[in-house]
Queue: 2 jobs
Job 1
Amino acid sequence: MARDNCSSADAAGRALSRSDDSGDLETRATEAHHESLRLWLRMLACTNLIETTIRQRLQARFGTTLPRFDLLSQLERAPNGLKMGELSRRMMVTGGNVTGIADALEAEGLVTRIADLTDRRASRVKLTAGGRRLFQRMAGEHEQWVIELFGGVDASGKQQLGGLLAQLKQHVGRSIG
Amino acid sequence: MARDNCSSADAAGRALSRSDDSGDLETRATEAHHESLRLWLRMLACTNLIETTIRQRLQARFGTTLPRFDLLSQLERAPNGLKMGELSRRMMVTGGNVTGIADALEAEGLVTRIADLTDRRASRVKLTAGGRRLFQRMAGEHEQWVIELFGGVDASGKQQLGGLLAQLKQHVGRSIG
DNA sequence: TCTAAATATTTTAAATGTCAAGTAAATTGA
DNA sequence: TCAATTTACTTGACATTTAAAATATTTAGA
């Protein structure tokens, strides 16, 4: 996964560390701007570290991948299956990608494609019994991994982090919407 | 990019929302556990949303990709170039990946590979003059994008978020180290 | 001095991801 | 009723990513 480790963030860090704390508005405005870059890089590094850890464990323990786990997770709570477009939306990836991941899971016998009764263009993807059982085992361990990885932040810290992320996400959504 | 949108997080959400608030220790412990999952999913969704936005803008504005931008960024602050292994460490990707990205940038004339004088196995990658100029233009816009995207969080919120992420990252590092 | 082990990078295969084009089907509106 | 437009999904090309293996070189130690 790429991370935009922009060097100007480092430059910002160096500028901040040697700032004479003069406090003039322009300096403070610049500091605030660079804070965004540093924050972004830290968030990216943190998310990637956790994600890489989870990917490696899924591969080692179950011989599967995170996108496949993700798709199974979406289907687990949809007893009647989901359409490809809906999977695309929930997984936040393009339709072509969902096609490929569903193909792989179908080949493994974990999901099945069912023609849509009302729209011959569409198909629904549904968990097989085996897929459901496997998913339940993976989900149990996955949950323990996440609990362990987030164990260094106490309850109030988690509340704060959740709130700040929600605030950030809302603003981002408005910026690009 | 996959996200481990585990359905047990949703189950946690539903359980939490209909909890009778009895407050017994087991219920509260379970709630705290599920909070980790929800937090992880929110963090993942938020990071991916920002990352996707930046990727799309880099492609639209400069016809380049985030990993290539990332590599250029690493080189911008290394006037003498960097070895492949060092790029791999800084970009947090495997060596094989760095080879491919460097190949692409070299083909575009943005970087050049130089044989290492002290180790014939090694080579150093260095920005060309054109690469440096292009990177500076991209970095300027990239910084503005990040500032805009993080504009919804005030200075104290950014400080808090940064601190919490640092705490989280430190714990994760210890968990997997 | 020489061999074994370690290191640096590349290559290969597989998986995931986007974008654009293609195909089939549904919807819209004249 | 029928043609144009839109929609659902697949396909193909390209880029990125990993893990493992291969190749070349350096280092360590007997």
Job 2
Amino acid sequence: MHGEVRLRLTEVEAYDGERDPASHAWRGRTARNAAMFGPRGHAYVYFTYGMHYCLNVVTGDEGTASGVLLRAGEVVAGTEVARARRPGAPPRDLARGPARLTKALGVDANQYGVPLLDPAGELRLERAGDTPGPELVSSGPRVGVSREAERPWRFWLTGDPTVSPYRPAVKRRR
DNA sequence: CGGTTGATTATCT
DNA sequence: GATAATCAACCGT
């Protein structure tokens, strides 16, 4: 959650640090990905496509650079605030996609590197209820990555309407 | 519906 | 100079 807006996560995607060709950390540490190499439980926020922010949770030990991209969620509190940030969006689309999620939450470069497990933090990750069992979770190829897209490291709640529509990675023309 | 395209810039080659 | 862990608008069917 961030401020008044609370999300129930429905879709995430994993990246395996420097060993993973699809990871931002693949070519080693840079100014942009420095937070991925930091302690687990902190935020790695990146800016892409000239206009979007995406939010990751750092999951590996310090120096490891693994992370999980938060791809989608269902807004369960603070709907008014989220709707004001995404005017015109149908309720189920408020956080349906990694950039939509940060927009609805109000996350941007200001949250780069902040701790997510601090109960006093504005932006934080909380456990709510039991971890869903395998019968409720699906997995498949990651989205938008051109290398190693076949790794089935995107996970989502089966049948949940707030999961982002699957779009296979394609080479862009120009 | 589904497919295509422009937006817009930090980052890396 | 090209690309990118994307989105929304716009097309034709």
